[in-house]
Every structure is written in structure tokens, then in C-alpha cells.
Amino acid sequence: MRSKIDNLKLGLVLGILAPALTILVVYLIQFSGYDFRELIDLLVSKKVFTKIISLCVIPNLALFFIFLNKNHYNSARGILMATIVFAIFVFITWFAL
Question: Which of 56, 61, 67, 71 satisfies CB 3.0 to 4.6 Å to 76 for a cystine?
């Protein structure tokens, strides 16, 4: 019987939400004095925007291994797909900025 947790869509959603929540937490803890748009402009001008986005994907690594350990391969596949989407975004952004 297949678990409801072993779901590609769940993995994709978690793989997108985990970095977004990480970005939000970092913003609230470290940069709450800035308007969000000002922060993005600051990070781009200092050439660290893509580096920060790349670091915010680290929680996906933990989620990926948790799902692999529980034999939820479809959810792990969704996490991996979301991570690849972030990697493509970082790659495109790196060359565009």
C-alpha cells in the first residue's frame, strides 16, 4: 500500500516552500529593517543574491534524505525536481545580473 506522504506533488510543494520559508526567516531575523525590494536591490548590488538563494535551498537536502530514509521515493523525487528548478533559476540569474 502506497503512503499518502509518498507523493510527487507533496515533494514539489515542500521543495519550493522550504527555501521560501528559509528566505523569509533570514529576512525577518537579519534584514527586517529593509523593505523587501530594497533588500533584493542591495543583495544584487553586492553580488550576493544568487549565493543567498543557493544557500536557502540547503533545507531541501535534509528533506530529500528524510524522504529517502522513509522510502518515500516519489516525495524525494519532487524535492529533487524543485531543487533543480531553483538551480536553473540561480544559473539564469547569475548570468543575467
Answer: 67
Q: What is the pLDDT of residues 24-79, one digit of tens each?
A: 999 999 999 999 899 999 999 999 999 999 999 999 999 999 999 999 999 999 99
Q: Is 76 exposed, middle or buried (0-12, 13-18, 19+ CB in 10 A)?
A: buried
CA 45 to CA 57: how far, in whole Å? 21
As given in the structure block, the three cell numbers for residue 50 are 544568487
Nearest 5°: phi and psi at 48? -125, 5
Half-sphere exposure of 69 (CA within 13 A, CB side): 6
* Grid coordinates given for 84: 533543480
Measured distance CA(96)–CA(78) in Å, rounded: 27
